[in-house]
Amino acid sequence: MDYEGVLVIGEQRGGRVHSVTFELLARGRALADKLGVKLSCVILGHGLQQYAQEIVQRGADTAYVIDDPALEWFLPRTYCNAVVELIEEAKPEVVLAAATTTGRTLMPLVAARLMTGLTADCTGLDIDEKERLLLQTRPAIGGNVMATIKTPVARPQMATVRPKSARPLPADPGRRGEVVVKAYKREAASSASEKMLEFVADATQEVSVQDAEVIVAGGKGLKTRDGFKLVEDLARELGAAVGATRDVVDLGWIGYSHQIGLSGKTVSPKLYVAIGISGTIQHLAGMQTAETIVAINRDKDAQIFKVADFGIVGDLFQVVPEIIEKLQRAKAHKAL
Amino acid sequence: MHIVVLMKQVPGTSNVKMDENTGTMIRTEHENVMNPLDENALEAALEIRRLRDDVSVVGVSMGPPPAKRVLEEAIAMGADSGVLLSDRGFSGSDTLATAIPLARAAQVICGGRIGPDDLVLCGERATDGETGQVGPMVSSFLGVPVATYVRSIHVGDGYVDVERVVEDGFERLRLSLPAVLTVVKDINQPGFPTLDGKIAARSVKIPVLTLKDLGLSPDHTGLHGSPTRVVRVFRPKFSRDTVLYTQDNSGTATDNLLKFLDSRGLR
Lengths: 336, 267
Prior knowledge:
- Chain A is of the alpha/beta class and 336 residues long.
- Chain A has helices at residues 20-35, 52-57, 76-90, 103-114, 225-238, 246-250, 281-284, 304-307, 316-335; strands at residues 6-9, 12-13, 16-17, 39-45, 62-67, 94-98, 118-122, 124-128, 133-140, 145-150, 157-161, 178-183, 194-201, 214-218, 241-244, 271-275, 292-297, 310-313.
- Chain A has two domains: 6-183, Rossmann fold (3-Layer(aba) Sandwich); 209-335, Rossmann fold.
- Chain B has helices at residues 36-51, 68-77, 95-109, 134-142, 195-203, 252-263; strands spanning 2-6, 9-11, 17-19, 24-26, 32-34, 56-62, 81-85, 119-123, 146-155, 159-166, 169-176, 179-183, 208-209, 229-234, 243-246.
């Protein structure tokens, strides 16, 4: 049988299907439609059947649920065995997974087992319609350029996809699809073992910029750690999360969890305000899907203005306090 | 106990030149350095060696002959020895085609077959490709467990306990040995080359293993063994219809920004 169809590897944490699964389904649906094939999605875990319908409503034709207590936590070899078995049975031509700590660990194992290609951290996926090949685009070489990669012969063609680089489809309650619950076939006993001893939720992790609807981000243009406070002030005024460029994080003005770009997080908020950010490709790759982008920079030729909907060319140390003051005044006015 | 540390030579700056026709990097040797996270992996290996008296730390790198400098650096930092995998047949390797010779080399270094007292370490990703795929792939070819994003390592008798950083916290995992671990920056602070190390690095010979030495055919690695192909490299064109104001003392620019945010319901 030839390889046909698109398979999405869904993700769950703590017994809940993670929203990145729905982003992958939106990606997968677009590819499957272009190829004229079916889209399936697999989730691995324990007690996840309740999510199968939503997976169908979000775009899948088939939802596979591999249910076993052994799959409650992500264990690389265990998950790899289950996924490889499904791929060998379903023979999809394209497999997509999330570029998370899970997907980025699982998929290389799957690729090595199947001796096929895998492209990490894709921000763009398309189909070459003439050749029916998956075009996998990712930032390359420190994010200075983009590279498009294909897997001409080996199957399936596999990619991990940046979280938040696509929007989920709205759930369509009218969508119908097939739900297949599968058992996990335990591997024959082996001396190699992996065991989860404990999971410790880290409460000190700051609110993820990835989930914020509004982000105010700052770059080297803020000049000093003290200057960067302007970004935090405007963020507070807008009820926004704080983002930063790689330079700013390297300078130690703010922690890595705030870094936006290829080497940090990819975000897709309703509003992204870029302050003193020139707009390297590596940064743009992390925020270009924001719905609205506002940029403030003193250099009118800065790359950031090319992706902005609204830009102000000027000294940010003058512009930003003026915005904050006007926002505060408007608020006070409303309160009256 | 053998601890094999996989190390990649990467460009020292993030402003790498590239050939837009072939999609490959233009590497100029003198700028190359050891991938920073591989330094952390090496430091982790040295820390394990400090606690035991039977550990041999071996650096392995795959690349053109000048890549041997990374191994000399590793020895200067405290590694016992280094092995370079170098052969024209390796060039153009993608992550899969890189993992195969590295896995084979780990077997060779561990006396022909990686044993229950051996460990392979590397950085979670390299600063140039940033794929993070080679470590897990090597574990697959070795048929041993893997843990990624590791920030602490404790070696026990026949097992290793690690802390693995994930999006919403961390996991404590126990893997049987041998195993492959890929480490993150938080694990330690890499040390500096020592005088003894520098002297050792000057006198040591770095053995070079070729395709043939590893018992591999040209189909396993290099461009032939790579399932992926770079088909296009480009500078992305982003474009939106930008409304651009220049700041002056009139307050017009910021007034219009607030109006703009209102018009989109963003305030």
